[in-house]
Amino acid sequence: MQVPLQVNHVTELIAAIATAPGHGGIGVVRISGPDVRLFANQLSGIDPKPRHAHFCKLRDALGDVLDEGILLYFPAPNSYTGESVLEFQGHGGPAVLNLVLDRCIDLGARLALPGEFTKRAFLNNRIDLVQAESVSDLIEASSAQAARAALRSLSGVFSQRINGLCERLIELRMLVEASIDFPEEDIDILDKFNACQRLLDLQNDLGALLVQAQSGKRIQDGVSVVIAGPPNVGKSTLLNAFAGDDVAIVTPYAGTTRDPITETIQVGPVLLSMTDTAGLHKTLDPIETEGISRAHKAMRTADLVLWVIDATSKELSEPENIPENVPVWKIYNKIDLIAQHSGLFGGIAVSAHSGLNLNKLREELRIFVESRDFGEGAFTARNRHIEALRLTRDQLDQALQNYEVCELLAESLRTAHQTLSRITGTFDSEALLGEIFSRFCIGK
Fold first, then answer.
1. 344 in Cβ contact with 368 (< 8 Å)
2. Given 324, 344, 371, which residue is the final one in a domain?
3. 2 contacts: CB under 8 Å, gap ≥ 6
4. What is the average per-residue pLDDT within 76-95?
5. Domain range for residue 70?
């Protein structure tokens, strides 16, 4: 069983408001570190019992009441951080919460850094790095499906898959090292224990996990839909219609859109990440050329391309330079300018300007999104997870190429193991931890 390399030995008390900024019925102040039981007595005059709700009054240095509410004590290691933790649940006004927090600091606590509570949970082996990141994903989830996927990651679904692959990598490394250390043996250790097939199976399972991780990221970020086509066909108007706001500039002049503009839109159980792109045409303008290049890049990574066509034009454009694996829908726009349009087109005919048939397009998009197979065990994943899985896959490819040379095979498996383990934090640098946890809110 793998454990993170870093184990925390923190002696500082940290404190923070753990509820979101603003006014609310209830607010929470969280304190973590050593001697919190004594701290609770100084703060409230109570010697708290573990996991027992105490009604109390918190007082300032002069004995005046700051607030009253519920005090909870969680002794180490059975707490969120793995340290002893106090939580005070009082009134949710910013002024009163800050008075309580200031009193905690007066008594010797330090204001917690963003994500420091979760970072301590990781350093104290309460959770691994994937689970730590899923806390942030759960807080920021924009759909019910994203929240469920984040909960699965928090419960360890993704981590268990990674750890299982790491265990198999360790077994392979042991076999290879044994072959190197005992070359004089009469038996071929790799052949006897079917190491090549094990490596192939590992490669296949890692590939399947990569596909699931990519789906998990799509749940979190939204299914990528790119609006593309020639200039002046109504691409920006279509994005504005879906967004319900003027997020993209619309003019009668070609080349208005240069940089891709992305808007997140809720459709069915998950999100659409809808991107408006520059009009595709031949040009010598260097700025437009760059915009067109970015449009092609967006289409290459899209889950769906909406190819918009001006239904009033005599020359109807055809989709171009779109990868074969990316589905393309033809969207005939501006049908409000045509007297008889029913049945004239093979795609979806709409008017982004008047809204005609947009509900039909929304429904088709909903069906498309819900047909995406995210799987019952879907979990959230991030770019760094996917990149690590891809790099591990490449390193396993290299291991197969080096299979006949044990020393090279051993090195390829070592680097693959190290890369894969970084996902859960078994091998990690302080710089990476700082980058990850700094993105959390205060109090988590």
1. no
2. 371
3. 163, 166, 421, 424, 426
4. 94
5. 14-127
The mean pLDDT value of the chain amounts to 85
348 Cβ contact list (under 8 Å, min separation 6): 329, 330, 331, 332, 357, 360, 361, 364
CB 334 within 8 A of CB 234: yes
Q: How sure is the predictor about 428, in pLDDT bands with cuts at 50, 70 and 90?
A: very low
Helices 157-181 and 406-424: crossing angle in degrees, nearest 10, is 160
d(CA 352, CA 361): 10
CA proximity to 326, closest of 293, 364, 300, 298: 300
**Residue 328 and residue 228 share a domain:** yes
Q: Which of 17-26, 258-267, 355-364, 434-443 has the lowest mean pLDDT?
A: 434-443
Model-level pTM? 0.73
pLDDT of 342 over the 80 cut:
no
Question: At 48, which helix (H) or strand (E)?
Answer: none
How far is Cα 262 from Cα 396, in angstroms, rounded to an integer? 36
Question: Is there a domain that residue 253 lies in?
Answer: yes
Which of left, alpha, beta for 289 (phi over 0: left; psi -120 to 50: alpha)? Answer: alpha
Q: What is the pLDDT of residue 8?
A: 46
Domains held by the chain: number: 3
Give the separation between CA 292 and CA 280, rounded to whole angstroms.
6
User: Residue range 120-126: average pLDDT?
Assistant: 92
- Is there a single domain that holds both residue 228 and residue 215? no
User: Can you point out the beta strands (E) in 292-420?
Assistant: 304-310, 328-333, 348-349
Strand order in the sheet with 348-349: 261-267, 270-276, 223-228, 304-310, 328-333, 348-349
